[in-house]
Amino acid sequence: MFQSARLKLTAWYLLIIMLISISFSIAMYQLLTNELDRVERAQRLRQERQLPINTPFELRPRTPRVFTIDPEVIEETKNRIKVTLLLINLGILGLSSLAGYFLAGRTLKPIQMMVEEQNRFITDASHELRTPITSLKSEIEVNLRDRKLKREAKKVLQSNLEDVNRLQTLTDDLIRLTQYQKTNGLVIEKVSLSEIIKEAVSKVLNLAKVKKIAIKDQIKDSVLEGDKKSLTEVLVILLDNAIKYSPKNTTIKLTTKRNDHYLIIDITDQGIGIDKEDLPYLFDRFYRADKSRTKTNVAGYGLGLSIAKQIINKHHGDIKVESKLGKGSIFSIVFPCKHTS
Ligand code: ADP
Questions:
Q1: CB-based contact 307:176 (threshold 8 Å)
Q2: Which of 4, 5, 142, 294 is deepest in the core (most CB within 10 A)?
Q3: Can you tell me the distance from the alpha carbon of 231 to that of 31, in angstroms, rounded to the nearest whole number?
Q4: Which protein residue's CA is at the shortest distance from atom 14 of ligand 1?
């Protein structure tokens, strides 16, 4: 993330420096050539003025006039100025690329450190929360098994357990999100697309069965170069969302398309769809499209899609979404072909 930001900032620095340098060179060139023309004109006039004004035309010398500055020399000088200015600009381009890259690194360093510090804090806090949440969960579960417990008390404990489960999901999601933001952590190897689809489908099958949602796998197998565990996780997130945000008795389709540059995996659902206004923010952390939340009252923290995007970006790919409110959505994983075969 910071490397591409550094390159972009360097490009901006370069653009500004080169704009100033080229404008300055053009102005210099105009100034110098005008000055040369003026000197040449002045020289010519002076030469002419050396003849007495009333010299009859017949008595003026017939031989070609000899100028002190030869026009060819002037032309050659102009060309030399042009070449020199060009070389100076090339030198400035080279030097400012190096200086710009160095300065961009220094400018972004404090921001990078702040983001790393923030991620460390989120990871540490989530890890600290994990232990009490786990013991709270097991205590509630033990108490729920107590037969002497009254119905009312059981209801309260059941609701507590649901909240604790949600908290556990949140801390796990936060840890995963910060983990994937780091550059390392992925094991890149050749993985079969059908294999990861099969694994992801098996993980969400129960959820789909409860809502009587059919998952149609129409994928043509390909070999991807990537981290098997995290790619499976992306598919689980997208399939899980497709199930969560679809009504009962609908179908989810998994298909692939391929062009010269990309392999595209489409996950198409017949769910509630997403409003156009929500689409640009869908992959932001903690973003939940309001309409779908109020319509379905589905639990979640709005972290799944940002985790999925983070993972796919680490594989140099992208996730896109097309959706129509009330009709359904297509989430597309775009994988660069150099990572597939
Ligand atoms: P979560 O599902 O936990 O809220 P996500 O980051 O996975 O978080 O999704 C963000 C939001 O995007 C969801 O709250 C939902 O509004 C919307 N969304 C994601 N997938 C779909 C889908 N297949 N159909 C409709 N809305 C979706």
A1: yes
A2: 5
A3: 62
A4: 288
The mean of the pLDDT values for the chain is 88
Positions of the chain with pLDDT lower than 70, given as ranges: 50-68, 183-185, 290-297, 338-341
**Which ligand 1 atom is the nearest neighbour of the CA of 305?**
6
SS3 77: helix
Q: What is the dihedral of CA 261, 265, 266, 267, to 10 degrees?
A: -160
Query: Could you give the CA distance from residue 55 to residue 126 in angstroms, rounded to a whole number?
Result: 103
DSSP 340: B
Please state the pTM of the whole predicted model.
0.73
Identify the helix (H) or strand (E) that includes residue 257. strand 251-258
CB 327 within 8 A of CB 212: no
How many Å lie between the centroid of ligand 1 and the Cα of residue 276?
Answer: 14
Alpha helices, H only, 211-332: 228-244, 290-296, 304-314
Q: pLDDT tens digit string along 68-118?
A: 677 788 889 999 999 999 999 999 999 999 999 999 999 999 998 998 888
Q: Is the CB of 309 under 6 A from ligand 1?
A: no
